[in-house]
Amino acid sequence: MAKLWKKTESTLHPAVEKYTAGTDSVFDLQLLPFDIQASKAHAKGLEKIGILSAGEAKEILGGLALLLQDFQAGKITITPEDEDCHTVIENYLIEKIGDTGKKLHTGRSRNDQVLTAVRLYMKHNLAKLGDSSVRLADVFLKMAKKYSADGVNIGTCGREVPMPGYSHTQQAMLSSLGHYFSAFAESLLDDADYIAATAKHMDKNPLGSAAGFGVSIPLDRELTAKELGFASVQMNSLYCQNSRGKFESAYMESLAQVMLTLGKFANDMILFTSQEFDFFAVDGSLTTGSSIMPQKHNLDVMEILRGNVSVVIANQLMVKDISKNLLSGYNRDGQLMKKPLFESTKIVADSLDIVGLLLEGIIPKPGNIKAKITPGIFTADIANKLVTEKGVPFRDAYKQAAKIISGEPDLAANIASKVSLGAPGNLGLAELKKRIQKSKNGNL
Question: What is the model's pLDDT at position 396?
Answer without folding.
Answer: 92
